[in-house]
Amino acid sequence: QDPMRIALVAKSLGNGFFEAAARGAEEAAAELGNTEIIYTGPTSTTAEGQIEVINSLIAQRVDAIAISANDPDAVVPALQKAMQRGITVISWDSGVAPEGREMHLAPSSDALIGQTIIKLAADHLPEGGKVAVLSATSTSTNQNVWIAEMTKVMDQYPDIEVVATVYGDDLADKSYRETQGLIQTYPDLDAIIAPTSVGIVAAAQAVQDAGKVGQVNVTGLGLPSEMAGAIESGASKSFAIWNPVDLGYTAAMIAHALASDAASAEPGAEIATGRMGSVTLDDETSAAMSEPFTYDASNIDEFKSVF
Amino acid sequence: MSLLDPPRSRSLPDRLTGPAARLSRSWEVLLLGIAVLIFVANTQASPYFLDPWNLSDATFNFTEKAMIAFAMALLIIAGEIDLSVAGIIALASTAMGWALQFGLGTPGLVMIGLAVGLACGAVNGALVTRLGLPSIVVTIGTMSLFRGISYIVLGDQAFNGYPDSFAWLGRGYVVWVISFELVLFALFALIYGIVLHRTNFGRHVVTIGNNPTAARFAGIRVERVKMVLFLLTGLMSGIAAVCLTARLGSTRPSIASAWELEVVTMVVLGGVSILGGSGSIPGVVLAALVMGMVTFGLGLLNVPGIVMSIFIGALLIGVIAIPRLVARIRGR
Amino acid sequence: MIRSFVRSREAILLGALIALVLLVESRFSGFASPGNLAAVFNDTAILIMLALGQMLVILTRCIDLSLASNLALTGMVTAMLNAAVPGLPVVALIALAVTLGVVMGMVNGLLVWKLDIPPIVVTLGTLTIYRGLIFLISDGAWVNSHEMSAAYKALPRAELIGLPVLSWIALAVIAGFAVLVNRSALGRAFLAVGGNPHAAVYTGIDVGRTRFAAFAIAGGLAGLCGYLWVSRYAVAYVDVAGGFELDVVAACVIGGISIAGGLGTVGGAVLGALFLGTIKNALPVAGISPFWQLAISGAAIIIAVAFNARSSAKAGRLILRPESTA
Amino acid sequence: MSYSIDMTDQIAGATDPVLRLAGISKSFPGVKALSDVELALYPGQVTALIGENGAGKSTLVKILTGLYQPDAGRIELDGAAVRFATASDAAAAGVTAIHQETVLFDDLSVAENIFLGHAPRGRFGLIDWARMRREAAAILTRIGAQIDPATPLRELGIASKHLVAIARALSIEARVVVMDEPTAALSATEIEELYELVDRLKREGKAILFISHKFDEIFRIADRYTVFRDGQMVDAGRMADVTETQLVEKMVGRAVDTIFPQRESVPGEVVLTVAGYAHPTEFADIGFTLRRGEILGFYGLVGAGRSEVMQALFGVTRPARGAVRIDGRIAVIRSPAEAIAQGIVYVPEDRGRQGAVTAMPIFQNVTLPSLPRTSRRGFIRMAEEFALARTYTERLDLRAAALDQPVGELSGGNQQKVVIAKWLATRPKVIILDEPTKGIDVGSKAAVHDFMAELAAEGLSVIMVSSEIPEILGMSDRVIVMREGRIAAEFDRARLTPETLVRTAAGYDRKGVAA
Lengths: 307, 332, 326, 515
Ligand SMILES: Nc1ncnc2c1ncn2[C@@H]1O[C@H](COP(=O)(O)OP(=O)(O)OP(=O)(O)O)[C@@H](O)[C@H]1O
Ligand SMILES: Nc1ncnc2c1ncn2[C@@H]1O[C@H](COP(=O)(O)OP(=O)(O)OP(=O)(O)O)[C@@H](O)[C@H]1O
Ligand SMILES: [Mg+2]
Ligand SMILES: [Mg+2]
What we know:
Chain A has 307 residues and is α/β, with parallel strands linked by helices. Chain A is built from 10 helices and 14 strands. In chain A, strand 8, helix 7 (197-209) and strand 9 form a beta-alpha-beta unit. In chain A, helix 1 (16-32) crosses helix 9 and helix 2 (47-59) runs parallel beside helix 3 (76-84). In chain D, strand 11 (270-278) and strand 12 form a beta hairpin. In chain D, helix 5 (129-142) crosses helix 6. Chain D is globular, with a radius of gyration of 24 Å. The two termini of chain D are 39 Å apart. Classes of the chains: A alpha/beta (307), B mainly alpha (332), C mainly alpha (326), D alpha/beta (515). Chains in contact: A-B, A-C, B-C, B-D, C-D. The B-D interface holds B 1, 3-6, 8, 10-16, 194, 198-204, 206-207, 210-211, 213-221, 277-278 and D 30, 32, 314, 316, 335-337, 339-340, 346, 348, 353-360, 362-364, 368-369, 371-372, 375, 378-380, 386, 390, 393-394, 397-405, 409-411, 414, 422. One adenosine-5'-triphosphate binds at residues 28, 31, 33, 51, 53-59, 100, 412, 439 of chain D. Chain B: Part of the ABC transporter complex LsrABCD involved in autoinducer 2 (AI-2) import. Probably responsible for the translocation of the substrate across the membrane. Chain B: It is found in: Cell membrane. Chain B: The complex is composed of two ATP-binding proteins (LsrA), two transmembrane proteins (LsrC and LsrD) and a solute-binding protein (LsrB).
């Protein structure tokens, strides 16, 4: 029997986060047996690029596509075509509008992430203070949702003021420059929340270069391997992330289950996900994994070589 | 000597060589060869290549860019260039999305897209022909300006919810696997081919590209022709914006990013001289097919897009360099 | 002397730059402080150096669109080498970066010189090839801050008499270019080749070789900037400086370097880059939405080029002598 | 070769030539510009190189200065064979030239134009600007030019530019100085100063090669002559041994007076009237009439503004004031397209840039302004195009291989015929020919003259701008002389002598600098 081919589509190639997810997917494939993972994606984070990739996956008649989308709407037509041709489509990490996928696997619930990122900053500001947000591109879905969720719980932190939201476009140099701008505009800034793995690294570097270590704490979502230096220098006291390896593993497990008809994507369905247990789909057929895990000086060494 | 001073004859022959001989030395034939080669290579490399639906899907990789490339070819032949085409797409798409908020129907949306394209072309054309500025610099500026306006309007938002009848323009099929976009592509290839090769206007375009001063001295209204070409390029970008927006079903300011270089690459690969004065539409059509097949064929092998771009880059330099290298070596 | 400076393009650009700084200062005091201006300069240092390289190429009536890809590739090579062999001295890496950059510039130059392919076509091709090579050698993976040696990252940010080394390098490059362009035979050859290639031959200048030299020098600078960029931002990936080639051309255009060749100054290129850099820095500080940035730089380019064209508009030849003197 | 250098040497006496060329040949695609020519230059002597347009004089200059490599032959300097691979090699060997075209840099200063490529160096081998300006000023003073070395070249007029070119040639420490038509653009006083300079260079022992079409000046300053005809050396000797008539005959290869066609002109009614025509910087007070079947000559020094007037009439530039009437009706001409529509056409001076589209085929060049007639509703009809092109190229007796041959592959004279054919195809009323025989070989030149006469006889009105006195005298019914943007005088053919032409054009009369 031909192996089952599951395509794991990244927002863009070369991003450490997705590389780690791909390793998780390979792990799942090995566990499942007779399963092939095609890890692919466009070179830059554009919807047009992802559509070309999806078209070529449809042409290859893969069994399942698991995508982290650059644009929740633009990829829908292409993915609908895939579903019409009998391909199982799920989204993970950065979601696709419901009509374009069978289910969505969120790394964590958006509410949880929103709460976590502000808590990370607040934990180190017992007397309150000013924080700013450094986001990815202005168009990235998940960052926007998380910031919205964060805003919802701001009344729990009356002493903390969010003074600005800027966009680093997931480019190291732009994020760096935006951070510099923040530091200059708000000389009494206490923390920068960067819910993006590119932005947080650049922000930490900019804070370090500006000699503001100890005054401005950089926090948010980042990868341990990339943030190890910032923790060491003190530019970042702590940050959080879900485990991309687990995420990729789970996405592959779900895609396999749906593609082999071992499960179906209906509201309320429970899908077994190997070593991760199982997930339950909500009314919009989306499921969330766990709360993000926090990394700081105490555990960074343990994880920096993992992902 | 004998060629230049033939025995005095009352009347000169029309042509020195027959059509076959002329064709055999043409760029188009070289490109056709390359296209066939790539086609065969693709069928060998992937069992999925020779499937009508897959080939049809593959056409979306180039149809919109090629439509712009036709107008751009004329513009480059006339000695100008427009690097703002992707910016025009962004602005036209944004305008359509904005108009959608007021409940405009499909015909209205299309009109808006085309009108914005024309307007952008008019801005470029006026800056180049009225103020006499170099087009490469002007359009580097308007490239940022047009897309910048999209960013100002949209910021981190997106427009979506385009009606189904609008979506058809980017996703619909006319018959079987022949998409509406493919029909448009073929239609424009024909129109631009005729305009360039079979009309007085096309002759004027070529003349201007060869020698704008002599063209002016021969009574050609050089500025007017250039203005028309900028308008056409804007219009084609507007049409591409309609198709792309319809295909994506959403508008974001980053839409069609970096397309300008791909369009120019397509035109140059099609044998249009970047210095102006020569080029053909069949060449551009073939270049579009070659680029589309290379990207699709490599995509089937899951080769990342950036590696494909190495192929395209090498092809671009190679097809120009190799004949010259051969000529140099022979000349020695 | 002074009067001709006051009327020059550079003076007007300098005026515009000062006006811009004061405008931002009026909205956000502290922007015009020496410390902050030094930071803006440091931030623009790489753009300045690339603009100078591009200027040479444009002076000879060519254009190099591959500079940003060249930068990214050399940056990645040094970063990967540093990650693999952390003991390698930084000086060796810099030498390697410059060499690699020069080689890439020479490839462009040779194709333009020996095969007579239009520069825009050559560099459009090498733009994608050089960038694609980064993906091939790195497999798309990033080189992260903690994989780089401390020495590798330290150099550009180390301070020397109040300025980071990056700024000093830029100042040295500016000074070097001022000497090259104004005081050396090669420098004048760039101007001559672009101003009138036909006449350049009559003065014994080899047009092709001079263009080749311009590409090589620009490539070398891009290589140097590759190391500086990657070490400064402490990360290397495929898309480093993506689209930066157009910023570099824009800086030259704003600086009054004529795209038709033969006309431009070191001061113009530097000011053009600073103008663009200041806008980029000022917007977030002045609290203008970042979404305005693109449109503003686009408008700046158009205004600058329209302005330059006006000021250099060819005055008609004076054949007619006034009746009184005739 | 029938003339041997050694023989002339014996006549000349003891001195050996500084520079000697032997057996030099050079071909361009389709043209044999030089074949097996000889030349010797002696210290302290001026050798005049004489030949018709296209005889290969400038080509020889370019070979001498390292710009072209000869296909065959040798260059000897002081008896030793040398090779000049670049212009710098030649300069280093002490060979310098004032080239026929002004090959200078508009965006650089006068001083730098003089010293580019061999600028004075200061410490660390860097260019010493102060010294460069000083030395440039010195050289300019030496040749009597009042030009500030710091001015950008762009701001100078054509004559001053020529002086800069001369200064440039003299800035090189040279033993051999080549001057390719150095006086063509200069005014009378400047020419006098140039002659003095030549005398001074002679006294300094330099060998000078002097190229000129003006016989009076050749007889005034040259010691020896060499004559080229169609790329071959036909004679060499001492000036003392020849007369002007002999030289002309050697140069043209036949007696002179048969060159111009005989015609009986009976000018008809006035076709074109120009009155009060003026441009802010280029010309003023231009007024003249043109009759049917007439050839009106325009004479003047290069840079007198004749082309500018013609281009304004053709709608290329717009005059500030003045009226143009065609057949008595006011004509508004704002673009060449409008001029063509009104029946005025212009064969420009700069054939390569303004006249022919060299990369395009002959037939497309010919039909360019007539496309509306050969097409239907804007769609090209190739057969009609060929037919039209055939008619007119046949009439002009064009020599080419086929109608689809690129114009660039034709000889200069045949290119000119294509341009003329293009305009005749529009059936104009008035045809303006700007330097119609510039750079055209002898045969084609006569053909163009014959044809011009034919056109006039057919009732076309012709304006001929020319800087060649014989052509002006031989062809025109009336002559207008322009000087510094104004009409200096108008003459009937009958009252005209070469002397009056030259005097009026150069303004001797008014300034009283009699020759
Ligand atoms: N670069 C070139 N390519 C092709 N043909 C050329 C080139 N230069 C000169 N020729 C041809 O060579 C011949 C000799 O030209 P050359 O310029 O030497 O004439 P000349 O004697 O200087 O004439 P003039 O008196 O008009 O200056 C002409 O037929 C000319 O068209
Ligand atoms: N200031 C100048 N700088 C450079 N070239 C010049 C200048 N003035 C004139 N020329 C060149 O000299 C030639 C003749 O000049 P112009 O056309 O102005 O004079 P003209 O009186 O019309 O003379 P003619 O038609 O006899 O050449 C042209 O080739 C023109 O380009
Ligand atoms: Mg000559
Ligand atoms: Mg003239």
